[in-house]
Amino acid sequence: MKEQLEKRIALVTGGSSGIGFAIARRLIEDGFFVVITGRRQQALDEAVASLGGNALGLSADVSSAESLKQPYSEIEQRFGRIDVLVANAGGGVHAPLGQITETQIDQMFSTNVKGVVLTIQGALPLLKRGSSVVIIGSSASIDPGATMSIYGATKAAVRNMVRSWIVELKGSGIRMNILSPGPTNTSSLRAAFGDHAEDGLAFLQAKSPLNRIGEASEIASAVAFLAGDQASYINGVELFADGGASQM
Ligand SMILES: NC(=O)c1ccc[n+]([C@@H]2O[C@H](COP(=O)([O-])OP(=O)(O)OC[C@H]3O[C@@H](n4cnc5c(N)ncnc54)[C@H](OP(=O)(O)O)[C@@H]3O)[C@@H](O)[C@H]2O)c1
Known about the structure:
This protein is α/β, with parallel strands linked by helices. It contains nine helices and seven strands, in the order H-E-H-E-H-E-H-E-H-E-H-E-H-H-H-E. Helix content is 46%, strand content 18%.
């Protein structure tokens, strides 16, 4: 317990898989004690077993303020603070105009927008001067392409919320930035293409100036930079880690 308190404390929502898991692993390598969240207990348990002794898994649904009460209460009792908050939990599905369903709209806005609001609001009492917040956006915020209009809209909404929040946080000493990945090699990226995963990945590779999609560890490196003291004068930006694809 004492050793945990001496370490910096990070919370990574959606840390049980994909990009969030890579961020948790990187922050542990950088000396943090990391709390990860997710809805599925088994996935959390497996992730914590893989991350080792400096990780704790707490189940929570970011789209429910009620569900977030317990993990925030436990973090407050055990650590009393959050040094780095990574609001990563999120996701989306492809749907072209004409085939967008109400359920898709509700689910994407509920997780990617409401979830980010509730995550950061719940963490506010635990964020101190010098704490840093990184929200995982997406290059879809400026370059959604076909079939990603709703997903892109949720990530553009996050970008706009941060413009307001950094003004509200003036004087608090808390920094808040967005790290927007381009297509990244995770199971969810493949799943989003359904039966057309190979075609989808080939399209994304061809679109990239680097001729490839990103690795989750590369996104984690960029998050570690934004979260840490090397970025002490960076506040309110959306940093793209997408190989330049969104600028084409
Ligand atoms: N992969 C990409 O190409 C890519 C590109 C740009 C941006 N992003 C963004 O990066 C973030 C992570 O994506 P990923 O590809 O790593 O996805 P992923 O592998 O599907 O992981 C998503 C994580 O979030 C958790 N999660 C989902 N909904 C949640 C909810 N309502 N409450 C709590 N946890 C929830 C999942 O656990 P449970 O299911 O157990 O809850 C899981 O741990 C997302 O914000 C996504 O939009 C991804």
